[in-house]
Structures are given as C-alpha cells and as structure tokens.
Amino acid sequence: MTDQPFQPPQSVRTEKGSAVAYPEVAGPRGQRFQVLSLELGFASGLAAQANQPDSDDEGVGDEAAEQPSHAIGSFGVDFKACVKFAGNEQWKIGWVQTAESADFWVRYRNGARAARQRTTLPRRMRDSDTAKGCWYGDESRSKADPDDPVTVDLMDDPVITFHYPRHTGGPGLEELEGWTPTGCGGEKEFWTWLVAVREGHDHRPMDVVYLHHIHWKVVFDCVIGGGDGEPAVTVPATSGVVLIGEGVGKGGATPVLDGPGVLPRFEVNRVEQLPDEQR
C-alpha cells in the first residue's frame, strides 16, 4: 500500500486510522508483529503563543537575551498505536520521525521598509528529543512483550518563532533590531514511522521492521498584528497541519535513525529585504 493523498477538511479536527487489526508483519527471524489499532489525529489552524526555547539546544547561553519571545504554533498531530508481538528476541516498538529540509520566514516592517528573517534547515535530520536510540522520545516507545500488546503514542506541535513586539537583533540579524513582525510563511515537513526495532548495545538499530508510515507537513501562513501587549494572528483556512499520505509499511522515504536531533542551532538564518511589490 502506497501513500494515499489526502486533504483534511480545514479548521476541523480530523481522525484517521483503523480500529480493525492489520495483517501480521514478519520479522527477519520469524518474529511476528501486528498492529491491532491505529489512531491518527491532526488539526489545521495556527495560534500565537509564548516561546519555550528547547532546553537541549546548547551554545546559546551568551545569547539567551536574543531568544525569540513568541512562536506561531500548530495544533499538531497525535498518533497512537496498539501492537502485538510474537517472538523470543528483545525488540522495542514505537515511533521514529524525520524532519525534512525546511524553508520558512517571518516578515518584519520598519516604517515603509519591509524585510523577512528567512530560516532554512539545509538537510533531513532525525527529529528526536532522546539521546538514546532512534526514537522520537522516551515516551514514544515500549519494550515488546509477547504476553501483552503495547500502546505507544506520539504528539508533536511544530512552531516557528518570532520577536514581539519588536525584533531584538542578534548575530547576523542586527539590521532587524527594532522592527515589528507582520506575518509568516513557509512549511515544515515530516515523515513518521511506526516501527519495531532490535537495538544493539549502543542503542543503534540492528533490525528495523516498518509497520506504518505517515507523511505530513505544517503550513505556516498568517498575518501578525497587535499592539504592545500580546500578538494577534489572522490565519487562513489552509494553514496548519496537512496530512499528505499514510499507509502500511515503509512508504516512499527512509528515516534518519542516527545523528543529532533537530535543534535551532542547525538552522540557517538570514535577512532578506523585500522589493516594493511585496511590502
């Protein structure tokens, strides 16, 4: 089964998946895995919120004052699976996720002048907040148990950050200091897999069995307004989470299972002046 193109109703919480058990999937040495139920929840829409810097991002101590004050957040995804295992080896079942290369921006204005802070993630990276293994997070995986099916969850709500009510500058962004945000654009794209993994002593995957895949993205498109208090946003119906496709097995991409997880320090920021027709 390949990806099934799907466009969810906009601005409505949407559920996909199945309460009916999927066919068994064979492991490399006779193990058997079966997805008993699968819930895929996602929502369109965006909202402004206070920024919560990632505590795992190192090397920002001297620039802590320059951290963006706010974020445009998506309402996110919520995936849950119940999986049965039969076999005599030690396996773990859970979710892994890869962030695709990304391109997004926040527009700022200073009087009649306009520019944008453009941010790119130059390469695909493991999307994970755990230092051990390939998993999305410690809560998103469980040891396989032949006597008891396991239930594993993944929740994610990607954001892009901005300075409000005025940009505070910072290395490479000095020319935006004092400018006011007016909007944002761009996308972040992800592949998520439900997998069974046999790990080595260093937590590296030795065997991987792909049970399901989800291909999705967040469209960041909104107008930012407000005064000196909290920002207000105007959000088109097409913004927020979009499910591109999902299906059994590996799908049309390969996960990044090692290396560092995605953090702001791996992103590239630059200032782009906007021509008159974009102001």
Descriptive labels:
mainly beta, 5-stranded antiparallel beta sheet, 11-stranded antiparallel beta sheet, 0% helix, 49% strand, 279 residues
How is the secondary structure organized here?
Layout: E1 14-18, E2 25-26, E3 32-42, E4 46-50, E5 70-74, E6 77-86, E7 92-99, E8 102-110, E9 113-121, E10 125-126, E11 141-143, E12 150-156, E13 159-162, E14 180-199, E15 205-219, E16 222-225, E17 232-234, E18 240-248, E19 268-273
Antiparallel strand pairs: 1-3, 2-3, 3-6, 4-5, 5-13, 6-12, 7-10, 7-11, 7-14, 8-9, 8-14, 9-19, 14-15, 14-16, 15-18, 16-17
Describe the structure.
The chain is an all-beta fold. The strands form three sheets. Strands 7, 8, 9, 10, 11, 14, 15, 16, 17, 18 and 19 form an eleven-stranded antiparallel sheet that branches. The relative contact order is 0.25. Mean pLDDT is 89; it is low at 1-13 and 58-65. The chain is built from no helices and 19 strands. The N and C termini lie far apart (46 Å).
| Gross morphology | elongated
Query: What is the end-to-end distance?
Result: 46 Å
Tell me the series of helices and strands, N- to C-terminal. Answer: EEEEEEEEEEEEEEEEEEE
Q: Main β-sheet: number of strands, strand sense, barrel status?
A: 11 strands, antiparallel
Structural class: mainly beta
Strand content: over 45%
Mean pLDDT: 89
Could you tell me the number of beta strands? 19
Radius of gyration from CA coordinates: 21 Å
- In percent, how helical is the residue content? under 10%
Low-confidence stretches: 1-13, 58-65
Supply the number of helical segments: 0
